[in-house]
Design goal:
Blueprint lengths: L31 H11 L32 H4 L9 E3 L2 E3 L19 H11 L8 E3 L6 E3 L20 H27 L2 E3 L2 H23 L8 H26 L4 E3 L1
Antiparallel strand pairs: 1-2, 3-4, 5-6
Length: 264
């Protein structure tokens, strides 16, 4: 076996063209190692598919009967029976101890109180109980307290019953004051000749003229064709509706106000 010589390459056997430009060296970034390191650092192993190998469970650790049932605490953990001075502990709360078998109750205690005389005296001297006011609202005799039903006229006995509240009196005074100021303003403007009051005859004639115009527009509106399929017909219909609505507002305004002022 002979040693390898770099000059003995198959590409050296192919004749090269004269004036051929040699290939430039391939560019390599100076941050290549840093980028590889950061990419490897951000990767988390076993993130999506889990670990590549999982240990098989041991055959000895098989599921046994009643192994997953909830087990209660032992009796000794809940109850603590010790000396006489100790107390019974249940769920963290202390209770008085139970008397022992050797402890006997106090015997022979008697009283000289005459319960018959005492009860009779309390019954004689006691205030009799007043009957409860009730009402029945069904044929079966269903009873309900009368006080909370609203049937007892207890509010008419109040001192301020039927008296007008103060805020209503103040509001009436404010309305009267505002009306007086408005009347004074109108009188001053009439004296200066800045406006005049419309007479009843003029008001009636104006109202009749508005109603006559509305009747004419309504008659023209009723004469429109059933099919509104062209732009001129739509524009004409909308114009009639707008004029009729305006006349209706004017008629309502004049009918609502008996006194009308016109500025000069």
């Amino acid at each position: 076996m002979t040693d390898f010589c770099p000059s003995e390459n198959i590409y050296n056997l192919i004749p090269r063209e004269e004036g051929a430009v040699p290939k430039a060296v391939r560019y390599t970034s100076t941050f290549r190692g840093q980028v590889k390191q950061e990419a490897q650092k951000n990767k988390c192993p076993n993130k999506t598919m889990g670990p590549p190998k999982v240990e098989a469970p041991c055959p000895k650790d098989f599921l046994q009967k009643h192994s997953k049932e909830i087990k209660l605490q032992e009796r000794s953990a809940l109850f603590d029976f010790s000396e006489k001075t100790d107390r019974c502990v249940v769920d963290g709360k202390r209770k008085p101890p139970v008397p022992r078998r050797t402890e006997l109750p106090i015997m022979g205690v008697q009283t000289k109180k005459n319960f018959i005389t005492t009860n009779a005296t309390e019954a004689i001297m006691g205030v009799p109980k007043k009957p409860e006011h009730i009402f029945v609202d069904s044929k079966k005799g269903d009873k309900h307290p009368l006080e909370a039903s609203g049937l007892v006229p207890k509010y008419i006995k109040r001192k301020d019953y039927g008296v007008t509240p103060e805020y209503i009196c103040k509001r009436k005074e404010e309305v009267i004051r505002a009306q007086e100021e408005y009347d004074y303003y109108v009188r001053e403007r009439l004296k200066q000749g800045a406006m005049k009051q419309l007479s009843e005859e003029e008001r009636t004639s104006v109202l009749e003229g508005l109603k006559k115009n509305w009747d004419e527009l309504h008659h023209e509106y009723q004469g429109l064709s059933v099919m509104i399929d062209t732009p001129p017909k739509k524009i004409h219909k909308e114009r009639l509706e707008t004029q009729m609505r305006q006349l209706e507002r004017d008629i309502e305004l004049i009918e609502r106000h008996r006194i009308i002022y016109i500025a000069n």
